[in-house]
Amino acid sequence: MSPRMRVAVLGSTGSIGLNTLDVLERHPDRYEIYALAARSNVARLREQCLQHRPRFAVVVDNSAAALLASQLRSIGSPTEVLVGEQALTDIAAHGEVDTIMAAIVGAAGLASSLAAARAGKRILLANKEALVMSGPLFVQAVREGGATLIPVDSEHNAIFQCMGGSRAAGVRRVLLTASGGPFLRTPAAELRNVTPDQACAHPRWVMGRKISVDSATLMNKGLELIEACLLFGLPARQVEVVVHPQSIVHSLVEYIDGSMLAQLGNPDMRTPIAHALGWPERLSSGVESLDILRAARLDFEAPDLERFPALALARSAAEAGGTAPAVLNAANEVAVGAFLEGRCRFPDIVALIERVLERAPPMPADCVADILAADGWARREAHAAIAGPAGVHA
Ligand code: NAD
Ligand code: MG
Description:
Elements: E1 5-10, H1 15-25, E2 31-38, H2 42-52, E3 56-59, H3 62-74, E4 80-83, H4 85-92, E5 99-102, H5 110-118, E6 122-125, H6 128-134, H7 136-145, E7 148-151, H8 154-162, E8 171-178, H9 196-200, H10 209-217, H11 219-232, E9 239-243, E10 249-255, E11 260-264, H12 270-278, H13 292-295, H14 310-320, H15 324-340, H16 346-359, H17 368-387
Parallel strand pairs: 1-2, 1-5, 2-3, 3-4, 5-6, 6-7, 8-9
Antiparallel strand pairs: 8-10, 10-11
Helix pairs in contact: 2-3, 4-5, 5-6, 5-7, 6-11, 6-15, 10-15, 11-14, 15-16, 15-17, 16-17
The structure holds nicotinamide-adenine-dinucleotide and magnesium ion.
């Protein structure tokens, strides 16, 4: 019997983390859950440690780590608690870890994903923000480290499947499907008054709050456009976005001979997670069979770029390259945070990103320090714009 693959699930308490553990649990003969990592959710991490008995649990927040360590000690758990951001990076590059599920949300996942890339790990990438902000530097780290990068984002996993795991030879264009989010039919004038809970009530997927808001503004699709260019080595003009409200076709690839391949399935993240874990083999995932007779229809429409200007902003950041995608991503993280906390309105999110992008000097990204400097600058600009006397409105 071949040895079990040792997996570190970074972001284990989130939506992708929970779905990953659900798939891993189905295959105890193939995978060992070696490490779990999260920011501060002690109750959920404790439960996960008791169930999966990982060697390590990494907790970024100091007091949460101390609490978890004392709770685990008192019940004689074999799991060792490690604390802080450095421990997260150490675990991602740990000699005994084979596979990383990169499922931390936002730029907070960059250092660990990069460490895994440099250490030549198999990286299952859900954390699109890390790739978007660091761009070609991330791709280079994967290549130089001898790592394997497999997309978990459902659209990119679909494209990866359609391309048979190879790069973009003979591809005419890629069509990224978008559900359109909860405000697909909401008139522009009403977007001013939508609440965080309305924005997070996604019609097809249950996800963390940050990506739910990104799906509502369509910035998620903008980030995914940049992600697709990087993963598959395509220029932005070869990546198109099409609204597909049923979320059954997860994306399509068209070849120069006119063939168009698509991947279909129920909207359940366990499918791309199981695919990425098992590739090139297939694993059962617990996902129900797609009933195409019940689904019956597949609709496609062009996105409304006027109501959803995020797409155009992301496209121009993709074309500009350098630190522009890092600025876009950082301004978006700050703006989404402000919206979720009731400090700005929904349309302000994209207005704010646009304003920060306009003020950002065009800069090359020659090293990770350039990326981090641009990220820091954009966050300060975005915070200042939100706090400013005029608010976000230009
Ligand atoms: P979530 O908010 O449900 O979970 C986020 C996880 O990250 C949690 O475990 C949290 O503890 C951890 N985390 C947050 N900040 C951290 C920090 N500073 N340091 C360490 N850990 C930290 O988010 P999610 O919906 O699971 O999304 C995770 C990532 O996967 C995002 O990048 C998202 O874009 C991507 N993604 C999610 C889905 C989905 O269906 N949820 C689909 C595609 C891609
Ligand atoms: Mg996606």
